[in-house]
TrEMBL record:
This is MIB synthase. Transmembrane segments: none annotated. It comes from Pseudanabaena galeata NRERC-312. Pfam families: Terpene_syn_C_2 (PF19086). It comes from the Bacteria.
Length: 243
């Protein structure tokens, strides 16, 4: 396993990310909180084959945007997350990432709705930035992994809204499509190469990536129990489902 610790590189990415967050519409306080999360350090550690801060920003920007969507739309009631609003919000999130063809008079109001929502701006600009370094196939791979993740979020919202929480096996089935696998779709664009689709989507590769991604989110569930229990509408959590 290759390891790399380069704190100056991480700081450079984090500094650039905080500026970018402001450009997307997040306020100063939010940008500083994003800076403290250390997405730059995350990608520095996760991508030891890349020393280019501009390429590492691919992962920092998209992971920040995914986390923002999760917090503001899906998980944290104090930040405005509402299970009743989640599906239409995710519809616009998909549109921000993968804009449809122009539809005449219907396109301007759609673009205006996206432009006024900082989370949607971050998702769209994150994909635009990825497009500068990635092939169309790599871009769509990331988009559709994200959209699969959003389907799981919709299931969580229904369970949360009805209070009819799922058995652990059903939650785990959803969680496997809502994991750090989405972040792994960026490995080769950040590294500066292309994994052929037949290799990337080979069941052996996909299953290995799913196992790794799911293991990490289960640890995240474990560390998030206290926070989740404190929410007025607790999100679904593997530890809580087992309990």
């Amino acid at each position: 396993i290759t390891e790399r610790f380069n704190e100056p590189l991480a700081d450079e990415v984090d500094d650039r990310l905080a500026v970018w967050a402001l450009e997307c519409g997040f306020d100063e306080d939010e940008a500083q909180k994003i800076r403290k999360v250390r997405f730059g350090r995350l990608v520095m550690l996760a991508h030891p084959d890349c020393d280019d801060p501009s390429r590492l920003l691919i992962g920092a920007k998209l992971n920040m945007a995914w986390w923002a969507a999760d917090d503001y739309y899906a998980d944290d009631s104090e930040l405005g997350a509402d299970p009743k609003l989640l599906p239409p919000r995710l519809l616009l999130a998909m549109t921000a990432m993968d804009p449809p063809p122009p539809a005449g008079e219907f396109t301007p109001p759609l673009e205006a709705a996206i432009a006024e929502e900082r989370v949607l701006v971050a998702l769209g600009r994150g994909i635009d930035y990825l497009s500068q370094y990635a092939t169309p196939e790599q871009v769509q791979r990331t988009c559709y992994a994200t959209f699969s993740m959003f389907v799981s979020w919709g299931a969580y919202a229904a369970w949360r809204y009805t209070g009819d929480y799922p058995p652990a096996w059903k939650y785990l089935a959803a969680r496997q499509h809502d994991s750090f696998y989405t972040s792994m779709t960026l490995i080769d664009p950040i590294g500066g190469y292309v994994l052929p689709p037949d290799l990337f989507f080979d069941p052996r590769v996909r299953h290995a990536a799913f196992l790794a991604g799911t293991a990490v989110v289960l640890v995240n569930d474990l560390l998030s129990v206290a926070k989740d229990l404190a929410d007025e509408q607790p999100p679904v959590n593997m530890v809580l489902q087992i309990a």
